[in-house]
C-alpha cells in the first residue's frame, strides 16, 4: 500500500506519534502521514476555515457537533488513549505537595504564578475547577494564561512557577520537573479518539486508524504518560 493522508491531531498524543507511531506506520505500510498538531479547539477552527483532513484525533466528545455538520463520519470514531492532568515546576525546584486536594490547593495559592492554556482540554477543565474550588479570582490575578502550546515552557523561562497541562504534553519540555498527576479528588481524564473525515473512506486512512489501536501504538502511549482507552 502506498499514498498519503493528512492527519489533524491534538497535542496530547503528539509525543507518542512523533516518537514512534508515525515512522513505524510509514515503514510498515509505505503510507506517508502529513500532520497538523493543535489543541482540539484550534483544529475545529482550522476546519471552519476550510482546511481539509483525512483523519482527526481529538477529544472524543468534540466529534458530535462535527458529525452534525457532516464533517466527520461518527461511525468510524475509535477511542485510542486518555490522559490525566498534571503539574510541572521549574528545573531544580523542589517538588511541592499535591498528595490530596487540600495540599494541591495550598500549592496553587502559594505559587507566584500558575500557567495554563485557555484552549487546551486541560486548561478548560482547570479554569472550571478553580472556579469550583473558589480560588479562581486569587489565582487568575497573577496567572500566566497561554493561548496554546506546551505550557511547561512557562516554568522554564520564568513566567510561572507551576504549569498545568495534560501529563503527556508536559513531557515535551524535558527541562521542567513533572510533579505528578492531580490528586484523585480533582483529577480529570480526557479521552481521545480518531475519526475519519466524512467521505475519507480510503484504505490508507482506515489503515492508519487501525494502526492507532494496535500493540505498537499502545506501548507508545504508555511510554508518554497516556493510558490506552
* Beta-strand segment tally: 11
Number of helical runs? 10
The CATH superfamily of the largest domain bears the name Periplasmic binding protein-like II
Helix/strand class: alpha/beta
Element order: H for helix, E for strand: EHEHEHEEHEHHEHEHEEHHE
Portion of residues within helices: 25-40%
Shape verdict: elongated
InterPro entries: ModA/WtpA
Pfam families: SBP_bac_11
Protein name: Molybdate transport system substrate-binding protein
GO biological process, one term: molybdate ion transport
Topology:
Blueprint: E1 3-9, H1 14-29, E2 31-37, H2 40-48, E3 55-59, H3 63-68, E4 78-83, E5 85-89, H4 101-110, E6 114-117, H5 121-132, H6 136-140, E7 144-146, H7 153-156, E8 162-166, H8 167-170, E9 177-181, E10 190-196, H9 203-211, H10 215-223, E11 227-228
Parallel strand pairs: 1-2, 1-3, 6-7, 6-8
Antiparallel strand pairs: 3-10, 4-10, 4-11, 5-8, 5-9
Keywords:
alpha/beta; D-Maltodextrin-Binding Protein, domain 2; 10 helices; ModA/WtpA; five-stranded mixed beta sheet; Molybdate transport system substrate-binding protein; molybdate ion binding; 229 residues; 24% strand; 37% helix
